[in-house]
């Protein structure tokens, strides 16, 4: 994942885990953007593991239309979180008439506002990758994954859409011993690793 320079003294890649970087980016780029894959490409995979009535979390939602597309396809309860207060405010306004979409400012490394075992699935389309680009990446990634594991129900799934090296991502996930892992390659780009605890 590459990007242009950001403020704050670091490169853009190093800043991907920082709220200030995303606040600045969403002030400048208000139009919707989907990292990696759009909903139509992922819908068949999601349908295998996620039901329309499940409570879902989109981690690091940004200004993607992914959640909107899921609601249009019949999903009923989608909570969207992002570290950027700027984008969360934008999305709350944009989707104020869609009660199936909820937006909250939150850091994926600390989701204490959510009770343990409160989600059927967590969908991550690039958030772990962003954290892996920043400082203290290993520690921050572990915190995020432990929080994801905590908020998932017993049979819940974590769906990770990544451009990262699959062997590295799998090693990280297996080292934490939280999940069994299945790997899917979608359209030859973007690797969807699915993890059921």
Care to describe what's here?
By secondary structure, the protein is α/β, with parallel strands linked by helices. It has helices spanning 12-15, 19-28, 39-49, 66-72, 85-94, 127-133, 137-151, 166-176; strands at residues 55-59, 77-82, 101-105, 119-125, 152-162, 180-185, 191-196. 38% of the residues lie in helices and 23% in strands. The protein has a seven-stranded mixed β-sheet with strand order 3-2-1-4-5-7-6, with helices on both faces. Strand 2 (77-82), helix 5 (85-94) and strand 3 (101-105) form a beta-alpha-beta unit. Helix 6 runs antiparallel to helix 7. It is globular, with a radius of gyration of 16 Å. The two termini are 28 Å apart. The model is unreliable at 1-10 and 190-197 (pLDDT under 50). This is Os08g0517600 protein. It holds the Pfam family Methyltransf_11.
Give the percentage of residues in beta strands. Answer: 15-25%
Quaternary organisation of the protein chains: single chain
What strand line-up does the widest sheet have?
A: 3-2-1-4-5-7-6
Low-confidence stretches: 1-10, 190-197
Task: Please name the fourth-level CATH homologous superfamily.
Answer: Vaccinia Virus protein VP39
Q: What's the mean pLDDT score?
A: 82
CATH architecture field: 3-Layer(aba) Sandwich
Gross geometry: globular
Largest sheet: 7 strands, mixed
CATH C-level: Alpha Beta
Q: Report the span from N to C terminus.
A: 28 Å
The run of helices and strands is HHHEHEHEEHHEHEE
Overall domain count: 1
Helix-strand makeup class: alpha/beta
Number of strands: 7
How many alpha or pi helices? 8
Q: What is the gyration radius calculated from CA atoms?
A: 16 Å
- Helix-residue proportion: 25-40%
Classify the fold: give the CATH topology. Rossmann fold
């Amino acid at each position: 994942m590459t990007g242009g320079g950001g403020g704050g003294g670091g490169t853009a890649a190093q800043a991907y885990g920082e709220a200030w970087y995303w606040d600045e980016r969403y002030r400048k780029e208000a139009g919707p953007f989907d990292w990696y894959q759009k909903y139509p490409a992922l819908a068949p995979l999601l349908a295998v593991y996620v039901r329309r009535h499940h409570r879902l979390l989109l981690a690091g939602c940004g200004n993607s239309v992914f959640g909107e597309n899921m609601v249009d396809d019949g999903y009923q309860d989608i909570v969207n979180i992002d570290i950027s207060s700027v984008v969360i405010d934008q999305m709350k306004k944009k989707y104020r008439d869609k009660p199936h979409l909820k937006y909250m400012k939150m850091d994926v490394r600390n989701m204490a506002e959510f009770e343990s075992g409160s989600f059927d699935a967590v969908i991550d389309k690039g958030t772990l990758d962003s954290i892996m680009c920043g400082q203290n990446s290993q520690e921050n990634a572990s915190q995020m994954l432990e929080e994801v594991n905590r908020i998932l129900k017993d049979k819940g799934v974590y769906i990770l859409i990544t451009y990262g090296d699959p062997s590295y991502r799998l090693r990280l996930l297996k080292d934490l011993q939280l999940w069994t892992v299945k790997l899917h390659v979608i359209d030859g780009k973007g690797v969807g690793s699915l993890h059921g605890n």
